[in-house]
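Lab notebook, bench 4. The sequencing result for the construct came back, and we need a structural model before the next group meeting so we can plan mutations. Quick request posted to the team channel:

Model the 3D structure of this chain.
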Amino acid sequence: MPAAAPVTAREPAEQVGLAGPTAWQRATGWGGSDDRLLGWAASIGIAVLALALRLWHLGSPREFEFDETYYAKDAWSLLHQGYVRGYVEDANEAILDGRTTGQWTDQPAMIVHPEVGKWLIALGEQAFGMNPFGWRFSAAVAGALMVLVMCRLVRRLTGSTLLGCTAGLLLSLDGLHFVLSRLALLDIFLALFTLCAVSCLVNDRFWFRARMAREVTGQVRSGWGPVRAMLWRPWLLASGVCWGLAVGTKWTALYALAAFGILVWLWSAGARRSFGVRSPVLRSALVDGVPAFGYLVVVGLCVYVATWTGWLVHADEYEEHLSSTQYTRFDRMEGDVAVAEGTERWPTATEPDASGPAEVWQSLRSLASYHHDLFMFHTHFLSDSEHTYASKPSGWLLLNRPVGVAADTDIQPGTRGCDAPQGSTCLRQVLLIGTPAIWWGGILALLYAVVAWVGARDWRFGIAVVGTASTWLPWLQYDDRPIFLFYAVVTLPFVVIALTLALGKLVGTAPPASPRRTAGVVAAGSFVVVVLLNFAWFWPIYTNGLLTHGEWLDRIWFSRWV
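Done. Here's the predicted structure in token form:
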């Protein structure tokens, strides 16, 4: 492909908004023609609406829903002890009765996920107490922040406040996102940090090209192009922090980090190509790829280790009680079977206690041994186990198997507000399932995104494709263990990006009064209305609403949803 013309003068203005930015506009940090104040006000308004929906009756049902039984108690332990302790039998009943004293043991517990998400849950518990509202509050805030980030990201990609707010609205109206924003699970925090990290990378792409435009007065006739001036990349630094927090919530963020790290390198190479640099891919691997690795991976690693500070401070407790865990340290494999040739303690467990810098190193080595045990748990201990709500990742985009996180069934007519006819009953349920219109429409949008990215070379669609692939496809290798549909909430933002970009293409850039534009606006608007109606229809099974058995069946469209 020939190199782009030198960026020396302003290119003729083009209609912006729903149109993609020109090469010059991208290089000079184009952000669209909409008023910035209006853009922020509208984005914040959508986020506040999302927060209000998520806070509505947040403390109901008053019980530990699904894996809240682990994370809520772990968070309280982190808050008050600095590390996760085990808990006594019947602790749930006591906690729901308002009794927290004496519900935790004196020994550390073996937790199988990093601690960032649990620390965030602990913030809500600190503010509102050890009750369902308290342990769910942080998730509600995280869900609303995701909506705000989505509005700003898509506005940045399209230059349109309308499309940015449409993306935020779609995200806020997805059932999977909505219900997870009302539960003390880890995945909503993972999704938030991943989306923030990607948003920072998009900002870096604009920043990098704008910086090159300032450094280069014409095409680069020979050499590498500007190098020293491009080493400081603040948005990459911010992204590295976000990736560290994402991995510090769940390790699965590593796949997306690797995929987007490669994309950053290719974006940088594309920028150098546009300014005339020859062999830009190879040259960018050195002058841009190496610094990017430092910003994303090295910084991310430092942040990740820092998130384990509570564990490191109490490493001696883990060395004493968990250095020989219930998760066998497998020594070899015979076919698909893990065989243990004997357990062993962590090397640090039998060493004398060190002091000063040597103690820090000893604690870090203990943490490494602990990570080895966690890896063995995830890769071997769960293999071939079963769970009622487990689902195959190949069907996640189709919403193949939702998760029932709470249910109150067989409510008799005339009791607790049930007005079912005689011979029937009422029930309440919280079901973790996405809004079908978003996910099923998103499949078509993702297929279009592949074509638009590869065929039309529109880089914006690449974000949706790479994001979806890196957060969804890796799960296919783990379909022999219990995994759940709600893991796909990390994929959801990229599905929404694909949908919104497709809607923008549908509306197009024709004059407002033209039949083409009118038809596009009607079609896009109709889809948003369908999503809204679809979300409203499922509202009772998202919020533990009271339904007769017949009304419930009207919302359970497939037998696999039961």
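The chain has 20 helices and seven strands.
Will bring this to the meeting.
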